[in-house]
User: Fold this.
Amino acid sequence: MSDLEQNLADVGGTIERFRGATLGHVIDGERTPGSSGETFQNYTPIDNSDLGAVASGNAEDIDAACRAAEAAFPAWASMAGDERRTLLHSIADAIEANAREIALIESYDTGQALRFMSKAAIRGAENFRFFADMAPNARDGLSLPAADHLNYSLRQPIGPVGVITPWNTPFMLSTWKIAPALAAGCTVVHKPAEWSPCSASLLVDIMHEAGLPAGVMNTVNGLGETAGKALTEHPAIKAVAFVGESVTGSHIMKQGADTLKRVHFELGGKNPVIVFADADLERALDAVVFMIYSLNGERCTSSSRLLIEASIQDEFIERVTERVRHLVVGHPLDPATEVGPLIHRRHYDKVCSYFETARQEGATIAVGGEPQPLNGAGNFVAPTLFTGARNDMKIAQEEIFGPVLTAIPFADEAEALALANDVKYGLAGYVWTSDTGRSIRMARDLDVGMVWVNSENNRHLPSPFGGMKSSGIGRDGGDYSFDFYMETKNVCIAADTHSVPKIGKGT
Ligand code: NAD
Assistant:
């Protein structure tokens, strides 16, 4: 049996479970098909075959979930931090115990190659462990003494929160939001992406099996315009953590306006990787290729614009081209696969449309630029490299969110910076140079939330994660997450030494 056959055999039972019954919501600890009985179909991008029906949540289902989260909030919020820490570690243990099933179904549901998804569950567990350990001190504030008063601050969980996630790495991203929310003492209503609902369903079950009280974590499946919208409008929900497209972020901001929702947005990107001639070109090459072609290019921090110093352009592009030609496109459950199929037919059509756009705009398709079906099926596209591009082209300005790289030359540092910043997005920037002063200048002047110097995207849970401009509002990670999920309260106590103003004494 090949590794692929073994993986398919191992995930077969899970697939049958999803195919065999409508995937319901989990509200107040109970599985429910929802109030309307309406469903939508989920498909695997491998061949667009059916992966089962999913309950299509509506405003009534969202209301039930929000009420459950509201009812569970007081007990969860007042639980001692170290008790919450123990429980969240139990969830991490349970995720690890189920890591292989999660990885296999995530890969089958999203089309992401197993070589990357095999770490998804482990990373999800790490998210729980990291924030579990911060739970006991999450409430701690500051002591701010003044001459006649003692001010001190403390933090309290904001209340039930909504978590809305996309389809690109659903398990990792969901846990990245849910773990700090729970550690802070908030209860959660999660609305997973409709194109990849499977791992969220496993997650909520695992959490309950690990001992999470009913109502603390609720999962409602459904479409963005119905279930997602209702969640962002619900008065019981105090904050919405959203990961997805920039335009959806705008919708959510409008939808949440009447109830004055606090929002945290992690949105799109068109991130530059800037390679200077003095860089370690071998390492830069590895990182450039990895950061756009891994995860099918469906990654918010993908380096989708290669800004390359003109003096090394020909040589470097030739080497990138060679690598891209040799990328292994294939079945996502095959351990050899480096690029799998794109999540959904609609997204595949969008990515493919940029091949024509590139031609019309006068860029060169150096590699790829066409579908690459597997056994005549599936949402596979050839890893693609556009050269001869200008920064004002759509292929340089718009988020394609596929295995597609646009290369643009620059003459000097000033031009590199100007090109890098000339997009509406501002999530991440990657700089490759051996000149320390230049790396400091570039890091300072790039209009992005995160800069990596001589590195690919490297995860560090205490560090702030998030974007500027159209790429987001707010930061995640470490204590930044608690600032979002908690209210800061200041308490001011007098030492009875100051004079209180007197009015109404008639003099
Ligand atoms: P999307 O915005 O279409 O959907 C994301 C989620 O929002 C889904 O669950 C969807 O159902 C829901 N939604 C849609 N309309 C809604 C509405 N009106 N109200 C409430 N919820 C609604 O995004 P997507 O296509 O699933 O994901 C891809 C996008 O996510 C890309 O732009 C990518 O860059 C971004 N992303 C950003 C980060 C980051 O950290 N910045 C990380 C991953 C993905």
